[in-house]
UniProtKB/TrEMBL annotation:
Pfam families linked: FAD_binding_3
InterPro entries to which the protein is assigned, alphabetical: FAD-bd, FAD/NAD-bd_sf
Residue span, FAD-binding domain: 10-344
Database matches in Gene3D superfamilies: FAD/NAD(P)-binding domain
Protein name (database record): NADH-ubiquinone oxidoreductase subunit 3
GO terms, molecular function: FAD binding
């Protein structure tokens, strides 16, 4: 059992994954430096290098729970500052697989805020740690390796106000640089041995924020899910702090809207009129922002045997999910906690040399459920290609039954909400009390 490793750890990238990893590392290292390419931002607005901050972000139950463990009282602080509190099943009007779900109080509480608001709060709590320093305007341009090339000894940093690069030497590095991670470029030998699982979804995201008189709505969130292949568009309205409503439209294998009119037309094409009606009555308070997600990608570092020691890659740099499932930040939080337990389980400091191997094996376990959930749906479209898991047709048959049954079977919906919130594994559906409700109801039409 290791209480302290000592020395210095460097986290590359100071977004959600990086900040949570830094918080965990502060329990084990004397000093933690976050190296972040962006400016120091002390405002609750989107950053240049995190363009997805312009889009609505859902924080799942599992993510909320980790944040509360890492920063006690964190959720209370969010709520006190204006986050919206919603019951996942009662406050969401959800059209899914041809049915509106019956709403009921589940006790699954979603705490809702815009992405920059959440990031600002995490950064505020991080600043209370005297051993964590954030170096802004500092771009990491490579790793420094030991003479035998096996161990990471530091990072090369290009600061915007300096002519020459600066080396930061350290005992441990976390790559939390997001989907654009240069890991494969900087460490080509290790990268060449670690396969990537890729599913090409070519998804667009288009988001605009609105204000409206919420007293007339009768819900806090509204979702019209895609149903591939026939219904490639999805639409979501989420309520956030300051009476803001984020309206996101997404489309698989589709072009994003270029104008507000095109945004309206896509909303109009959804199978139910609610989002289009909302847009007609609400006041826009932001521009329209679009984002393209070509693929879901998971790096199988667990399959390479030459990954550098004293380095772990996590967050979006390790795995990028389909954002419509709202999993990225919550999985990043679980990954940061995993890093903490791997450090805590070390018998002595020598085990730091092999920590990455244990960590990557566990990362596969943590990401498997959310990964399967998203890609199972993707592969309903014949033109979506990529690493198709064995048994996907059976999974699709099963999930269709679960989704349909959850429309009016309360305990099926509750389990679905728990699985989606990453607080229960998908095996939770296989309970003797639940199976008849999943299978009986639609057996005649849905075989
Ligand atoms: C459109 C969209 C919608 C999403 N919606 C949701 C949602 O609803 N719920 C959810 O949980 N997740 C969502 N996600 C995913 C979520 O944004 C990420 O999972 C989350 O931000 C964690 O990412 P990260 O911290 O690993 O990387 P990022 O957030 O991408 O941050 C990477 C950081 O590294 C820094 N950096 C990069 N390169 C360098 C370098 N060389 N040197 C120094 N710093 C560097 C960047 O400046 C940045 O701060 C969404 C993603 C997208 C694209």
């Amino acid at each position: 059992m290791t209480e302290s490793v000592g020395g210095r750890a460097v986290v590359v990238g100071g977004s959600i994954s990086g900040m949570l990893a830094a918080r965990v590392l502060a329990d084990f290292f004397d000093e933690v430096i976050i190296v972040e390419a962006d400016d120091a931002s002390y405002v609750k607005s989107a950053r240049k290098r995190v363009p997805q901050g312009e889009h609505s972000h859902v924080l799942l139950q599992a993510g909320q729970q980790v944040l509360e463990r890492l920063f006690p009282n964190f959720i209370t602080e969010l709520i006190a500052d204006g986050s919206v509190v919603a019951d996942f099943t009662n406050d969401l009007e959800w059209f899914h697989f041809g049915n509106w779900k019956k709403r009921f109080e589940s006790g699954i509480v979603a705490v809702q805020q815009t992405r920059p608001f959440l990031e600002w709060h995490i950064q505020r709590r991080l600043r209370q740690y005297s051993t964590i320093n954030i170096h802004h305007n500092s771009l990491v341009v490579g790793f420094i390796l030991s003479a035998d090339q096996k161990t990471i000894r530091g990072v090369k940093v290009r600061e915007s106000n300096r002519v020459s690069d600066n080396d930061i030497m350290c005992d441990f590095v976390v790559d939390a640089t997001g989907f654009g991670s240069q890991f494969r470029k900087w460490l080509p030998d290790a990268a060449s041995q670690s396969p990537m699982e890729t599913v090409k979804i070519d998804l667009f995201y288009a988001t605009r924020f609105y204000q409206t008189d919420s007293s007339k709505l009768g819900w806090k969130n509204l979702m019209i899910s895609a149903q591939l292949p026939d219904q490639p568009y999805a639409g979501v309205i989420l309520s956030f702090e300051d009476n803001k409503f984020g309206v996101t439209l997404g489309g698989y294998l589709k072009q994003p809207p270029k104008t507000d009119e095109e945004f309206m037309l896509i909303a109009q094409s959804l199978p139910e009129p609610h989002i289009h009606e909302f847009l007609r009555n609400a006041t826009p308070i932001s521009d329209l922002h679009t984002y393209r997600i070509p693929s879901q990608v998971r790096n199988r570092f667990d399959r390479a045997n030459n990954m550098p020691h004293h380095l772990v890659v996590l967050g979006d740099a390790y795995c990028r999910f389909d954002p419509l499932y709202g999993q990225g930040m919550s999985v990043a939080a679980l990954e940061a906690e995993l890093l903490g337990s791997e450090l805590r389980n070390m018998k002595d400091r020598g085990e730091l040399d092999t920590l990455h191997n244990r960590f990557y094996k566990q990362l596969v376990r943590i990401t498997q459920g959310p990964w399967d959930m998203a890609i199972t749906e993707s592969f309903r479209h014949p033109d979506i290609s990529g690493c198709r898991p064995r048994g996907v047709k059976l999974m699709q048959w099963l999930t269709r039954k679960i989704y349909r049954a959850s429309a009016n079977q309360q305990d099926v919906y509750l389990t679905l909400a728990q699985v989606m919130n990453l607080t229960k594994p998908s095996s939770a559906f296989f309970r003797p009390t639940l199976l008849p409700k999943i299978f009986v109801q639609f057996s005649s039409t849905d075989a």
